[in-house]
C-alpha cells in the first residue's frame, strides 16, 4: 500500500490479510491462493504488509475492550491515512470487526468477505473455473462460519462460489442460521476448552463426515484449523481434506 | 343472593387489580435497575420485527408442528379473552350472557370460535405435558439441565394444568348452561330460542343428563366461578412465573437488538481513554452522551463491564423477565452440546433470580436494600463465561429475540478489565497483540513474508 501511495496510485481494493493469513502456515496458503486469483484476474489490489495489525477481535470478545480499541484506533489511523475505501478479507472475524465495529470508532469502509468477492468475479465471468483440476464426482460440504453467517447473514456467497465447481454440494444437518460453531470463536481459539465431554470441533467434524463428503470447505482461518484438527481426531486425514473456498477455486482454475 | 355474588365478584376483581398493579410496579422497578439505553430509534423496523416475531411468532415455526401448536395456545389466549369481557360484565351487573340478546345472530358464532379454540388449547396443553413427561424432549429435562432443577419444571406443570382446568371449566360451563336452557330453569330459560347449543359443548351435554336442576345450577355457577377466579389467579401467578412472556414477550421483541448479531456494543468511556492515550482528538460521540440522552448522564464512569444486574442494561433485565425457559438457546449452544457448564438459558434464569432476590430484599428490608452478593460469582461462574464461543446461536434460537451473549460479554469485560481475571492463555494472547500486533508471538516484520511464495510452484 505504501508503495502504491508513493507512486500516486490507488488500488481497487485493499486486501486485509489478517493475522492468520499472514502467519499461520496453513492459512498462508489461502492468502496465496486468493492473491493468485486476484493477480490472474488482474485486480489492482494492495496489502498493508507490516503496517497491518490485529483488528482486536479476540481481545474484545475475551473482554479486553481497552486492547481492542487501541488496536482499532491504530488500524483506523493507518487505513484512513491511505484513504482506503474498499476492503476485502478472507477472515470473517476481521470482516465483522472492520465492517460493524470500526465505524463507531471512525473507520468507515466498504468491507467485503472474500466469498462475496469471489462470487462477484464468478458472476462477472472473470474467473474461469475450468482450466485446472476437475472436481467431478467429489463431494463437498460447506461449514458456515458464525461471524460470516449468523453475524452478517452471508450464507449464499460461499455456496455460490462452490456451486461454480463441478462437484456435488452436500449440506450438513445444522446449516446457515442454525450452523454449529467450530468452537474457536469468542477467544476460545486462544485457550484450552473448558471441561466438557467433547470438543466442539469434533462434534462438528462428525456431522461433516456424516454427509459422506471428501472435502470440507471453510471460509475462515479459525474454522480451518478447528475442522482440520477434528478430521485428524477422527483419523480421516487421508480421505477427507479441509480447504478454503479460495483454494478450491484456485485449484479449479489451475493456479 | 345475586347481590352477594356481585359484591364478591367486584371484590375479587379489585384484589386482582391491586395485586397485579403492585407486581407490575415491582418488576418495572427491577428492570429500571439496568443502565439506560435508548431503544426507541428506528420505529418502523421495530414494529416490523414485532409484527413478524411477536405477533406472527415467526421464529416458533422453525419447528412447524410446535409452531402451530404454540400458535393455537396464543390465539386461544388472545381471542378467548374477548369472552372475559362478557364474563366480567355479567359478574359485575349480575346478568347472564349479557351480549346474547343484542348480537343474537353473531353470538353463537363467537362462542363457537371460542369453544374451538378452547378445545385446541386443551389438546395442545395435553401434548405439551406429554412432550415434557412422556416423550421427554431433551431441552426440557431437569436431569440434563441443572438450571431446571428448581422451580422451572413445577412452574411449567402448574401453568399447563391450570390452562387445561380453565378450558374444561369453560366448556363444561357452556354445556351445563345449555342443559339448563333446554330445561327452562329460572332465568336460564329466558335465552331459549335466542342462544343455541355450541359447537363443542353440545357433545358434553350428556354428562349432565343425570343432574337434578339444583345440582346443575350448582355446577353451572361453580364452573363459571372456577373459570373466572382461575383466570384472575392465573393473571397474578403469571407475574411470578416464567410464563410472564405472554405479556413481556411483545415489548421485549420491540426493543430487541437491530444491529448485526456479530456487532459488539462499543464502550464510549473507553474510547475516550484510548483517544487520550494515543493523543488523538476526542470525538463527540465518545463522551457517552449518545447513550444517555434521557438526561441521566452518569456523574462518574462506573465500573467497566458488569458485575451485578444494575451494571447491565435495562433490556438485558427485561430479557430475563421475558424468558420462558424453553431452552432452545441451550439446545443450540455448542458449549452446552459438548458438555460444558455454560447454558444460555441459565444465564437468563440467573439474571432473573438475582433480580428477584433484590426484589425480596426491597420487600423485607426496605427500598435501600443492599447485599454483598452479585450476579457474577454468586450466580454465574467464570467457567460458564469462559466457555462461550460467541457464536450467537442462542440469540438466533430465541423465539423472542433474547440476547444471552450480551450479558456474557459484559460479565467477561468486568472480569478482564476490573479483576484482571482472564485465563492465563488469554493474557498471553493479549500481550502478543499488544507487543506483536498479532495474537501469536510472531515478529510484526514477518507479516508480509507469505508474498515470497506467491509465484512459487510449491507452497511450503
UniProtKB/TrEMBL annotation, chain B:
Organism: Spirosoma sordidisoli
Signal peptide: none
Residue ranges annotated for the 4Fe-4S ferredoxin-type domain, each copy included: 314-345, 378-408
GO molecular function, a single term: 4 iron, 4 sulfur cluster binding
Example of a GO cellular component annotation carried by this entry: plasma membrane
Alphabetic keyword roster: 4Fe-4S, Iron, Iron-sulfur, Membrane, Metal-binding, Oxidoreductase, Transmembrane, Transmembrane helix
Keyword DNA damage recorded: no
Protein name: 4Fe-4S dicluster domain-containing protein
Domain of life: Bacteria
Pfam families: Fer4_9
PROSITE patterns assigned to the protein according to its UniProt record, in alphabetical order: 4FE4S_FER_1, 4FE4S_FER_2
TM ranges: 6-21, 64-89, 109-130, 151-173, 222-240
UniProt cross-references to Gene3D superfamilies, sorted A to Z: Alpha-helical ferredoxin (1.10.1060.10), Transmembrane di-heme cytochromes, Chain C (1.20.950.20)
Segments forming a coiled coil: none
InterPro entries associated with the record: 4Fe4S_Fe-S-bd, 4Fe4S_Fe_S_CS, HdrC_iron-sulfur_subunit, Helical_ferredxn, NarG-like_sf
Amino acid at each position: 500500500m505504501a508503495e502504491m501511495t508513493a507512486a500516486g496510485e490507488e488500488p481497487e481494493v485493499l486486501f486485509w490479510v489478517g493475522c492468520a493469513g499472514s502467519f499461520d502456515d496453513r492459512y498462508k496458503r489461502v492468502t496465496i491462493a486468493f492473491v493468485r486469483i486476484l493477480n490472474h484476474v488482474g485486480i489492482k489490489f494492495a496489502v498493508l504488509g507490516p503496517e497491518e495489525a490485529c483488528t482486536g477481535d479476540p481481545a474484545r470478545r475475551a473482554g479486553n475492550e481497552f486492547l481492542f480499541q487501541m488496536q482499532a484506533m491504530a488500524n483506523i489511523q493507518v487505513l484512513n491515512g491511505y484513504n482506503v475505501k474498499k476492503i476485502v478479507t478472507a477472515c470473517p472475524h476481521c470482516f465483522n470487526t472492520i465492517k460493524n465495529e470500526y465505524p463507531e470508532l471512525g473507520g468507515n469502509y466498504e468491507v467485503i468477505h472474500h466469498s462475496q468477492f469471489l462470487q462477484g468475479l464468478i458472476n462477472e465471468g472473470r474467473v474461469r473455473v475450468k482450466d485446472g483440476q476437475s472436481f467431478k464426482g467429489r463431494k463437498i460440504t460447506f461449514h458456515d462460519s458464525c461471524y460470516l453467517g449468523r453475524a452478517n447473514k452471508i450464507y449464499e456467497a460461499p455456496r455460490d462460489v462452490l456451486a461454480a465447481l463441478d462437484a456435488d454440494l452436500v449440506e450438513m444437518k445444522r446449516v446457515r442460521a442454525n450452523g454449529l460453531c467450530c468452537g474457536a470463536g469468542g477467544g476460545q481459539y486462544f485457550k484450552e476448552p473448558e471441561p466438557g465431554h467433547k470438543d466442539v470441533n469434533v462434534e462438528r467434524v462428525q456431522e461433516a463426515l456424516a454427509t459422506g463428503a471428501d472435502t470440507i470447505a471453510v471460509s475462515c482461518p479459525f474454522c480451518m484449523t478447528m475442522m482440520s484438527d477434528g478430521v485428524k481426531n477422527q483419523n480421516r486425514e487421508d480421505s477427507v481434506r479441509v480447504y478454503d473456498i479460495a483454494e478450491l477455486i484456485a485449484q479449479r482454475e489451475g493456479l | 343472593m345475586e347481590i352477594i355474588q356481585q359484591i364478591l365478584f367486584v371484590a375479587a376483581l379489585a384484589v386482582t387489580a391491586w395485586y397485579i398493579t403492585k407486581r407490575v410496579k415491582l418488576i418495572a422497578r427491577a428492570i429500571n435497575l439496568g443502565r439506560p439505553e435508548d431503544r426507541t430509534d428506528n420505529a418502523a423496523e421495530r414494529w416490523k420485527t414485532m409484527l413478524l416475531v411477536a405477533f406472527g411468532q415467526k421464529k416458533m415455526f422453525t419447528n412447524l408442528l410446535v409452531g402451530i401448536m404454540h400458535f393455537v395456545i396464543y390465539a386461544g389466549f388472545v381471542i378467548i379473552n374477548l369472552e372475559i369481557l362478557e364474563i366480567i360484565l355479567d359478574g359485575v351487573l349480575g346478568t347472564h350472557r349479557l351480549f346474547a340478546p343484542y348480537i343474537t345472530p353473531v353470538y353463537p358464532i363467537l362462542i363457537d370460535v371460542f369453544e374451538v379454540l378452547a378445545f385446541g388449547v386443551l389438546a395442545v396443553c395435553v401434548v405439551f405435558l406429554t412432550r415434557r413427561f412422556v416423550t421427554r424432549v431433551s431441552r426440557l429435562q431437569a436431569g440434563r439441565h441443572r438450571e431446571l432443577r428448581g422451580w422451572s419444571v413445577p412452574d411449567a406443570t402448574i401453568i399447563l394444568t391450570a390452562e387445561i382446568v380453565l378450558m374444561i371449566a369453560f366448556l363444561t360451563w357452556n354445556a351445563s348452561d345449555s342443559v339448563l336452557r333446554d330445561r327452562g330453569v329460572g332465568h336460564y330459560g329466558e335465552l331459549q330460542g335466542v342462544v343455541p347449543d355450541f359447537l363443542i359443548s353440545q357433545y358434553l351435554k350428556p354428562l349432565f343428563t343425570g343432574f337434578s336442576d339444583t345440582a346443575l345450577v350448582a355446577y353451572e355457577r361453580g364452573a363459571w366461578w372456577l373459570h373466572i377466579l382461575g383466570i384472575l389467579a392465573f393473571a397474578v401467578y403469571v407475574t411470578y412465573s416464567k410464563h410472564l412472556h405472554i405479556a413481556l414477550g411483545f415489548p421485549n421483541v420491540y426493543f430487541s437488538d437491530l444491529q448485526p448479531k456479530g456487532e459488539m456494543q462499543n464502550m464510549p468511556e473507553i474510547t475516550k481513554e484510548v483517544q487520550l492515550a494515543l493523543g488523538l482528538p476526542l470525538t463527540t460521540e465518545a463522551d457517552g452522551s449518545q447513550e444517555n440522552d434521557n438526561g441521566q448522564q452518569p456523574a462518574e464512569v462506573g465500573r467497566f463491564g458488569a458485575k451485578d444486574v444494575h451494571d447491565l442494561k435495562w433490556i438485558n433485565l427485561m430479557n430475563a423477565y421475558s424468558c420462558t425457559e424453553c431452552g432452545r438457546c441451550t439446545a443450540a449452544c455448542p458449549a452446552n452440546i459438548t458438555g460444558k457448564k455454560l447454558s444460555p438459558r441459565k444465564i437468563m434464569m440467573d439474571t432473573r433470580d438475582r433480580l428477584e432476590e433484590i426484589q425480596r430484599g426491597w420487600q423485607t428490608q426496605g427500598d435501600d436494600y443492599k447485599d454483598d452478593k452479585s450476579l457474577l460469582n454468586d450466580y454465574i461462574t467464570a467457567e460458564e463465561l469462559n466457555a462461550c464461543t460467541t457464536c450467537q446461536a442462542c440469540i438466533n434460537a430465541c423465539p423472542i429475540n433474547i440476547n444471552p451473549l450480551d450479558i456474557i460479554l459484559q460479565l467477561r469485560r468486568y472480569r478482564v478489565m476490573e479483576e484482571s481475571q482472564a485465563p492465563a492463555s488469554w493474557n498471553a494472547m493479549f500481550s502478543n497483540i499488544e507487543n506483536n500486533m498479532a495474537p501469536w508471538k510472531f515478529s510484526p516484520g514477518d507479516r508480509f513474508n507469505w508474498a515470497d511464495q506467491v509465484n512459487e510452484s510449491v507452497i511450503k
